[in-house]
Task: structure prediction
Amino acid sequence: MSLYSDLLIKEEQADFIRVGVIGAGQMGRGLISQISQIPGMVVGGVCDIDESNIEFAIQGYKKFNKHDHDIKTSTKFEDVINGDYIDVVVDATGVPEIGAQIMELTLEASKHLVLLNVEVDITVGSIMKKKFEDKGLVYTGSAGDEPAVLVELYEFAKSMGLEVVVAGKGKNNKLQPYSNPDTCLEEAKSKNMNPKMLAAFQDGTKTMAEMNLLSNAIGYHVDIDGMHGVQANLDDVHEKLNLKSNGGVLNNLHVVEYVDGLAPGVFVIVRSDNAIVDEELRYLLKVDESHNHHYTLYRPYHLASLETPHTIAKAVMYNDYSIKPISGPVSETVARAKRDIKNGEAIDGIGGYTVRGEITSHQNMKDINAFPIGVITNGTKATKDIKKDEILTLDNTDLNKESVIYKLRQEQDRVFQ
Result:
């Protein structure tokens, strides 16, 4: 039986998967609207701090939903999570501290959790995955986000016996490392986006976080801090993301990367030592003898929250996941200053005015006494002058130690040394 067939059975039996969505912004409302047209699945609750977002999302849902059922709405996520009408919770907030609070409450309520919040996942995902699985619950990232789509491609290749030498994504916009909500405000308005969200895309933090999540899920490292980010297309990405000794930019293979180009797609670069398989790859992918022995498998799209129902269905029906950490962190996303920061100055977080994210190895983060950008919450301050482009560390920054995400990260660090 296929997933779709099983959903049809649920529809026929009126045994609906009941979904609670926390966050009704761009991603959340897309998901809510999509569920209205999926058999065997209904929205049981919606939460957002802005009631107009809730109303807009539910209007889109009711336009196509053919089932007459109640939907719990609230500006408090605990009202939705604790509802008897919810089987699975989707975090579509994108805010690490709120995500950490949602995680704890969802675990306490014994509900499955699907994350459209990469930022919290890369910060405390290892410990929370363990907590959920210890309780027999599913903890998972979402299909449609680039990391989960890449896991699909990676496992597709590995299950054919191919070696995956690079896994990566195309960046959707030009890297602007000092972007902030003011510099991107007009573009955000034109795209009906939150300017903080757009700033996090432009300054590279989102790309770093996404590849961080992939790294933690498949065990691949980054070749250099921040990745190479070369300009590439389908014709030359296999050449540029090769070892330096072979004319590429890499010091090592089996890494995660991003490229300027190929957006909005994802790719894996594969190879085989088996000469017969290599010849077959060359023939089937229609490349000539000038092509090296690395081949690019490419998916030219990712449909973000529109694919999330696949993960929701897998979690509830099969106790399965789309992407999760394999164990403790492999990579981390640390914070670099976007501008000079004065001693005593408040530091905002992802998509703000003061810091941007940069991926590095977990070991390097520990060696330089840094911390994940996701633990920066309200109340974080500089304890020394921090120069533009300097990494924030525990030596120059005072974190809010009362935040939920800070406490969870401390627990994670104790469990996963």
Remarks:
- The longest strand covers residues 163-170.
- The chain has a mean pLDDT of 96.
- The chain has 15 helices and 15 strands.
